[in-house]
Structure formats: structure tokens, C-alpha cells
């Protein structure tokens, strides 16, 4: 089969690789009909996530048709259209039964490696390095889905791939980011980053009752989408001091909650941003936490800080004093996708949201390297790329 494979930093290729096979009675094989390039994939593309190996198959946002089932999988049948959560969960451990699916104890075969870095292992992830299990991803013609009896969700009739594809990651991720803000009626939420996750965080904050959402970015087309589709008020941080303007917009109090939807490759237009970039390029610092720093400092006293952007290691110049003295509450984590699939599917079916608004580019799988390049460089007004095997 054809698959998008990692060959090193800034080097992805579409290779011919062996077809996946059933390895366990709880496995399924899915013929992929739609897959996408995620902002988190760029962290791999840029070489900032360790334990990648040449030939690893990328991709964790994918869906398709069931073509083969292990003997223990009874919740779907061959021919069903399904979406696949990017977090792999067994369904039986303490964390799965506590609705904390991305913390599954049993789905990361390389848990010992994660424990060395993090103390404990999170769940396995599709196509996201060997520290998260080394699983083949879904930017391919076929994928093996372990624990398919809890990890495949049938798509109801009448819904297109593009309406449901983002239930695999970015819609639940944006929703969980907003939910972590503990939004109350009348709250003002500020979102750093208007990429795909930020766009869904904006929509979700309003769905959960926010009175105002203020979105911060530097890319005009992303700010335009946040305004047009998200009905957010927008700030270009290259044109204004976002922290000062947020104070003015909130009567001096600051936002009630802030969301970092950027993560470890945040851009900064000041000396601290340059400092981060130089240290990361020299591999002296794994993450650039510019957006997170700004969000913490801008957040109002007693507010909530929600982190949806991916981080891989340690942060420098973290404003712990501001966080502690302003009594901020932090919530974060890889998304518990299984928790959100059904309620968010209902929002789609009810017409509350059509997630396909985020798509700007549709490409055949063979053009994946081009998709990665325009997404990274933000060329051609690229916000979200969907690949069709």
C-alpha cells in the first residue's frame, strides 16, 4: 500500500509499504477514505518530537471503511464507515473506566520509555513517535486499529467524511480545551492560535456559554476565519500589544479564561520569542512556550488556563510567579476523544456546527509532501489539508 512516511526532519515521502495485518483478536483493518494533516504532525515534520524512526507512517486523523475484523470485535461489521480516535484506549483499565481515555494504562507498548521522561505513560497514539507506542499512522491506504472494539465509532447514514473526519482529533480537542475553561455565563475567553484547534476552541467556547471570545494570531486568513465562522473578536499580535489590548477590552480585569491552542512551536515577535527560537534550533530547549507565557500573564486573576497545544519536553522562562500569585487554575492533556465523540456527533447531526468549514485544501495522498510544505509555510492561505488515498 501507499503511505506517508517520515524520513527525517522536513522530509516526508509517499512510500510503498506492506499492508497491515490483524495481530490481535481485538484488531481491525480500516481502508482509509479520508485523512488529514494535523498541526501536531508539523512537530514531527520539523524534527522536534524524539524517538521517530525512518520509515514511520504518519497521521492520526483518519476514517474509513472496515475491511477486516479480529474475532473479538463485535461492535462493527465489515463495510461499516467508521471514525478512529487518535488516542488508543483499551476500554478496561482504571483510566478508561474513569473516562480518561488518553491516559490508558494498556495501549502504549513502549510505556517504559514514556515513564523515563514523564514519570507515567499516557496512552498510545497513532503515528506519533515510539514514545507513544510506535503505531503506524493513518496517512495511508489502510491502517490497523488495535482495541477496535472500543476504538471504532460507526458513522450514521447521511453524513459525509468531511463532516465527521475531525471527530478523530481537532473538534474534540478544541471542545475539551473550552470545557477545561470552566466557562460560566458572561465569561470572556481568549484563545491564542487560530489554527484548526483554535478555530474549534472558539466555536466550542460559544457552545459552552461564553459571552465573548477574543482570538489572537498573526496570520490574516486565520484571523478572518475566526471572525467569519467563529464570530470571535480578533487581535493580530504583530500589530498590537495583545496583553495590553486584552486589558482594555475587559475593563482591566483580563479574560476569565485563556486557551493555548499553539503549543511547542509558538512564534514571538519580541526578544523572548527570538530567544526561544534560537534555543530550539540549537536543541537547547525542546519547546517554544511564547503563547503560553503570554496567555498566563494576560489571564485575569482567579482565571483558568487551558492548554490544548502539544508540548514535548521542558519549558524555559515559565512565569510561575504570575500563575501562583494570580491563583490561576491549569487544565490540559491529550484529548479524551472517546468521551466526546457521541455528544459532538449530536451537535453535527443537529446542525449546530459543520466541521468541514475548516478545510482549505483537498489533495490526493500522493501529494502529501506538498501538503506538509504549504501547511508549514502557511502558503496559499492553507489552514487545513485533507488527504484522499
TrEMBL record:
Pfam families: ADH_N, ADH_zinc_N. It comes from the Bacteria. Residues 196-265 form the Alcohol dehydrogenase-like C-terminal domain. Its cofactor is Zn(2+). PROSITE patterns: ADH_ZINC. Residues 25-156 form the Alcohol dehydrogenase-like N-terminal domain. Transmembrane segments: none annotated. The keyword Coiled coil does not apply. Belongs to the zinc-containing alcohol dehydrogenase family. This is Glutathione-dependent formaldehyde dehydrogenase. It comes from Scytonema hofmannii FACHB-248.
Amino acid at each position: 500500500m501507499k503511505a506517508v512516511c517520515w524520513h527525517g526532519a522536513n522530509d516526508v515521502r509517499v512510500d510503498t509499504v506492506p499492508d497491515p495485518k490483524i495481530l490481535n483478536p481485538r484488531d481491525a483493518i480500516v481502508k482509509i477514505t479520508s485523512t488529514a494533516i494535523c498541526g501536531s504532525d508539523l512537530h514531527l515534520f520539523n524534527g522536534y518530537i524524539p524517538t521517530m524512526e525512518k520509515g514511520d507512517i504518519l497521521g492520526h486523523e483518519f476514517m474509513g471503511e472496515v475491511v477486516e475484523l479480529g474475532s473479538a470485535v463485535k461492535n462493527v461489521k465489515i463495510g461499516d464507515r467508521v471514525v478512529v480516535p487518535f488516542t488508543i484506549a483499551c476500554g478496561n483499565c482504571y483510566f478508561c473506566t474513569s473516562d480518561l481515555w488518553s491516559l490508558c494504562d494498556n495501549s502504549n507498548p513502549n510505556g517504559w520509555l514514556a515513564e523515563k521522561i514523564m514519570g507515567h505513560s499516557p496512552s498510545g497514539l497513532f503515528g506519533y513517535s515510539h514514545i507513544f507506542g510506535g503505531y503506524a499512522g493513518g496517512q495511508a491506504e489502510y491502517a490497523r486499529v488495535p482495541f477496535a472494539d472500543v476504538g471504532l465509532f460507526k458513522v450514521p447514514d447521511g453524513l459525509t467524511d468531511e463532516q465527521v473526519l475531525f471527530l478523530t482529533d481537532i473538534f474534540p480537542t478544541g471542545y475539551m480545551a473550552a470545557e477545561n475553561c470552566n466557562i460560566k455565563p458572561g465569561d470572556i475567553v481568549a484563545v491564542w492560535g487560530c489554527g484548526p484547534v483554535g478555530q474549534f476552541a472558539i466555536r466550542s467556547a460559544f457552545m459552552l456559554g461564553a459571552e465573548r471570545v477574543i482570538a489572537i494570531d498573526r496570520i490574516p486568513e486565520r484571523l478572518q476565519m475566526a471572525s467569519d465562522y467563529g464570530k470571535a473578536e480578533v487581535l493580530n499580535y504583530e500589530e498590537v500589544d495583545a496583553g495590553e489590548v486584552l486589558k482594555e477590552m475587559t475593563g482591566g480585569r483580563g479574560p476569565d479564561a485563556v486557551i493555548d491552542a499553539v503549543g511547542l512551536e509558538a512564534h514571538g515577535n519580541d526578544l523572548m520569542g527570538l530567544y526561544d527560537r534560537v534555543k530550539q534550533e540549537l536543541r537547547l530547549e525542546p519547546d517554544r512556550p511564547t503563547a503560553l507565557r503570554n496567555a498566563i500573564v494576560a489571564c485575569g486573576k482567579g482565571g483558568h488556563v487551558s492548554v490544548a497545544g502539544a508540548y514535548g519536553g521542558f519549558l524555559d522562562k515559565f512565569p510561575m510567579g504570575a500563575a501562583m500569585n494570580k491563583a490561576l487554575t491549569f487544565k490540559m492533556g491529550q484529548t479524551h476523544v472517546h468521551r466526546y465523540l457521541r455528544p459532538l456527533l449530536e451537535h453535527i447531526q443537529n446542525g449546530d456546527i459543520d466541521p468541514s468549514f475548516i478545510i482549505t485544501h483537498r489533495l490526493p495522498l500522493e501529494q502529501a509532501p506538498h501538503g506538509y510544505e504549504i501547511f508549514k509555510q502557511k502558503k496559499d492561505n492553507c489552514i487545513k489539508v485533507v488527504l484522499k488515498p
